[in-house]
Automatic annotation (TrEMBL), chain A:
Residues 161-353 form the ABC transmembrane type-1 domain. It comes from Poritiphilus flavus. Its main location: membrane. This is ABC transporter permease subunit. PANTHER family: ALKANE SULFONATE ABC TRANSPORTER-RELATED, MEMBRANE SUBUNIT (PTHR30151), NITRATE IMPORT PERMEASE PROTEIN NRTB (PTHR30151:SF7).
C-alpha cells in the first residue's frame, strides 16, 4: 500500500514536470505571451539601432567640429582675425557656402533622403507631363516610321535604383545560365572537373574591375557598328562573370557529392543516364545549387556598384560617383542615403533567395 | 542447377600493396523459392557480399550465376532492400514507389502504374501516409516504404541487406512478420543478411554464418527444418530451435575467440611512475 502511494506521487511529479516543460515549450512557440521574447526580439534590436544612430551623431558632430576649427584657424592664419570671426559667424549661422564638409549627421542624411524622394516626385511628374505633351506628336512620328521622342531628362534616385536592379537581375540571369549547366557537366565527370579546376581557381579571385575591363575590350569591338548604348551590356555581363563562380563551384560540388545511397538506388532501379541526372542527381544537389545562387546574387549586388561606377552606366553606382564628384553641400549625405539603400536592397534580395532556397530544399533545417 | 550460384567468389578493394581482400572463396548456392539467411558480425563484409550479388560491385575473382547466367550489373529481377532504406527524401512515399514501378514496367499506362503503386503501399499498410515525405515517417515506416519499393518491381529474387538493423526490437518483430507474410504469398527466392541469429532462425530455411573479414568466407550451413508459419513463443520451447540456435551461436563465438587470439599480441609498456608536483 505504502509503495503504491509513493509510486503515484512520483507519477504525479513526473506529470507536473512534463507539464512545465510543455508549457515552457508552448511559450517559445507563441512569443506574444512571453515578455522575455518580446524584449529579446523587439526591444533589443530597437535599442541597438538607437545606440548606432547616437554614436553616429556624436561621431559626426566631433568630425564637424574638427573641420570647423580647422577652417577658422586657416582663415586666421591666411587673412587675419576679422576673416576668422566672419568664418565662425558664417559656420554658426548654417550658411551653405561655408559649411564644413565631412561625415554627415543622421539628421542631414534623413533630410537628403526626403530631398531625393521629393526630387523623384518632381521628375516623375515632369515625365508624365512630357508624355502627355508628346503623345500626339509621337503617334504621328510612328505613323511616319520615325522613332518616337523619349524623355531624356536626368533620372531620379528611384529611377537609378530600378536601373541597378535591372542590371543586377540581367547579370544574375547570365550567371545562372552559364554557371548551372557548366557546373552540372563538370560535376558529373571527374576528368572534366580536373581539367577545368585550374580555370576556376585562376579566374575566381579576379577583381570585378579587371572583369569589367576585359568585357569592355570585347563588347566595345563587337558593338562597333551599332549605335546603341553599350554601357548596360558591359555592366551586366561583368556582373554576371564576377558573380557566377560561387554557383559554378557549388553546383559542381553538389552534383559530384551526391549521397552514394541515392546513386545505388538509381543503379538498382536501372535509371537511364539522363533520368539519373534529372531524377536523382539534380534534386539531391538543389540545396547546394541554391546556396550558390544566393551567394551569387549577393556578390552580384556588391560588385554592381563598383562596376556601374567605372562603366559609366546609369544606376546607384554612378549616382554615388556623381555625387562624390559633384561635391555639393548635401552630396555626402546623399552618398550615405545610397549606402543604406544599397544595404537594405541587398538584405532583401538575400531574404528572397533564402525563402526560395528553403522552398526547394527537402532538408528543411539546413539553412537559416 | 541452382537459382543463384556463387563459385569461388572473392573481392579485393584497392590495388597492389594496399589491397585488402574482403571476401575470399565464397561458395553459395540458393534454390528457387528458398529463404536463406547469412549471419555475420558487423564489418565482416556482409554488405560487400550483397552488393556483389545484386550487381552493384563486380567480383575480383570467381563467378556469380543467376539462373545460369553471369551477373553483370543490376537487374530488375533482383530487388534490393538497403540497410539504410535509401529513400529519396525529396519524393513522397507514393513517388518513391512509383519511380520504381515506372522503371520496371515502362510500357504500363499511367493509371496502371498508379494502381500498382497504391496496391503495394496498401500491402505495407502505409496508404494514409502515401503523400508524406520520408522525413515525416518513423524508421519502421521508412523501411516499409523500401520494402514496397523493392517488391513493386515484381522481382524474382529479393535481397535484404540488414533490413531491420536500425529498428527497435518491437518494430523489428512486427516487420519480420510482415515480410514473412508477404514472402509466403508467392514464395520468391529470398536472401536475408543479418547480424541477429534469432531473426535468421525465425525467418529462414537455411542459415549460413559469414566468418569475419578480412578474407571473410562462409562457414558451414545450418538447416532450419521448422514448419511454417512459425510462432515466436512456441519456437522458444522447440528443442530443435534451441539446439540449432546454440550451435550457431557457439560457432560464431568460437570464430570470435579465434579473432581475439590472433590479435592477442603482448605489448611491452614503458615503466613510468607518477611525478610528484608537491615537493
Amino acid at each position: 500500500m505504502k509503495q503504491s502511494v509513493t509510486v503515484s506521487k512520483t507519477a504525479d511529479l513526473k506529470v507536473s514536470s512534463a507539464l512545465k516543460i510543455l508549457v515552457s515549450r508552448l511559450n517559445i512557440k507563441a512569443p506574444k505571451f512571453n515578455p522575455n521574447t518580446i524584449f529579446k526580439k523587439v526591444v533589443v534590436p530597437i535599442l541597438s539601432i538607437l545606440l548606432f544612430i547616437g554614436l553616429w551623431h556624436v561621431g559626426a558632430r566631433s568630425l564637424y567640429n574638427i573641420e570647423a576649427d580647422f577652417k577658422i584657424e586657416k582663415a586666421l592664419a591666411d587673412q587675419g582675425q576679422a576673416a576668422a570671426d566672419s568664418m565662425a559667424a558664417c559656420i554658426a549661422s548654417g550658411d551653405i557656402s561655408c559649411q564644413p564638409n565631412t561625415l554627415p549627421s543622421p539628421a542631414q542624411v534623413w533630410d537628403s533622403f526626403n530631398t531625393l524622394i521629393a526630387d523623384h516626385q518632381v521628375i516623375s511628374a515632369d515625365k508624365l507631363a512630357f508624355k502627355d505633351k508628346t503623345a500626339a506628336l509621337n503617334e504621328k512620328r510612328i505613323a511616319e516610321g520615325k522613332d518616337p521622342i523619349t524623355y531624356t531628362g536626368r533620372p531620379s534616385f528611384v529611377d537609378q535604383i530600378f536601373t541597378s536592379l535591372k542590371t543586377v537581375f540581367a547579370g544574375f540571369l547570365l550567371a545562372f545560365m552559364i554557371a548551372v549547366p557548366i557546373g552540372i557537366v563538370i560535376g558529373l565527370s571527374q576528368t572534366l572537373r580536373n581539367s577545368f579546376n585550374w580555370l576556376i581557381q585562376v579566374f575566381k579571385p579576379v577583381s570585378p574591375v579587371v572583369w569589367l575591363l576585359l568585357v569592355f575590350m570585347i563588347v566595345k569591338t563587337m558593338t562597333k557598328d551599332s549605335n546603341q548604348d553599350s554601357a548596360f551590356i558591359i555592366s551586366f555581363i561583368s556582373v554576371g562573370l564576377c558573380a557566377m563562380w560561387a554557383t559554378l563551384v557549388n553546383t559542381a560540388m553538389g552534383v559530384s557529392s551526391v549521397d552514394k545511397d541515392y546513386i545505388n538506388v538509381a543503379k538498382v532501379l536501372k535509371l537511364k543516364p539522363l533520368q539519373k541526372v534529372f531524377k536523382v542527381i539534380l534534386p539531391s544537389s538543389l540545396p547546394l545549387i541554391f546556396t550558390g545562387l544566393r551567394i551569387t546574387l549577393s556578390v552580384a549586388w556588391m560588385v554592381l556598384i563598383a562596376i556601374e561606377l567605372l562603366a559609366q552606366s546609369p544606376g546607384l553606382g554612378s549616382f554615388v560617383w556623381e555625387e562624390f564628384q559633384n561635391g555639393a553641400n548635401d552630396s555626402n549625405s546623399k552618398i550615405i542615403v545610397a549606402m543604406f539603400v544599397i544595404g537594405i536592397i541587398g538584405f532583401l534580395l538575400d531574404r528572397i533567395m533564402l525563402t526560395i532556397q528553403n522552398m526547394v530544399s527537402f532538408n528543411k533545417n539546413a539553412a537559416t | 542447377m541452382a537459382y543463384l550460384e556463387l563459385n569461388n567468389v572473392c573481392k579485393t578493394y584497392g590495388e597492389g600493396v594496399h589491397a585488402t581482400e574482403v571476401l575470399s572463396d565464397i561458395n553459395l548456392s540458393i534454390e528457387e523459392g528458398e529463404f536463406v539467411a547469412i549471419v555475420g558480425f558487423t564489418g565482416s563484409g556482409k554488405t560487400t557480399l550483397v552488393n556483389l550479388i545484386n550487381g552493384l560491385l563486380k567480383p575480383t575473382g570467381g563467378e556469380i550465376l543467376f539462373k545460369g547466367k553471369a551477373v553483370s550489373g543490376t537487374s530488375h529481377e533482383r530487388g534490393v532492400i538497403f540497410q539504410n532504406y535509401s529513400l529519396l527524401p525529396w519524393l513522397t512515399v507514393g513517388q518513391n514507389v512509383s519511380m520504381a514501378v515506372r522503371e520496371a514496367f515502362p510500357n504500363e499506362k499511367r493509371k496502371a502504374v498508379k494502381e500498382r503503386v497504391a496496391q503495394y503501399v496498401e500491402m505495407v499498410g502505409l496508404t494514409p501516409a502515401i503523400s508524406k515525405r520520408p522525413k515525416e515517417l518513423s524508421g519502421g515506416m521508412r523501411q516499409r516504404v523500401a520494402v514496397a519499393r523493392a517488391l513493386s518491381m515484381n522481382p524474382e529474387m529479393i535481397i535484404m541487406d540488414e533490413p531491420l538493423g536500425a529498428l527497435d526490437a518491437l518494430t523489428r518483430g512486427n516487420l519480420q512478420d510482415e515480410i514473412l507474410k508477404i514472402w509466403s504469398k508467392d514464395r520468391r527466392t529470398a536472401l536475408l543478411i543479418t547480424n541477429d541469429v534469432d531473426e535468421g532462425l525465425y525467418m529462414a530455411d537455411r542459415i549460413i554464418p559469414l566468418r569475419p573479414g578480412p578474407r571473410a568466407t562462409l562457414g558451414p550451413e545450418f538447416k532450419i527444418d521448422i514448419e511454417r508459419p512459425r510462432d515466436k513463443t512456441e519456437l522458444n520451447d522447440n528443442p530443435f530451435y534451441k539446439k540449432t540456435r546454440n550451435a550457431i551461436i557457439e560457432y560464431l563465438m568460437s570464430i570470435g575467440e579465434e579473432r581475439k587470439t590472433v590479435s592477442g599480441k603482448v605489448y611491452a609498456l614503458p615503466e613510468l611512475s607518477p611525478k610528484s608536483f608537491v615537493a
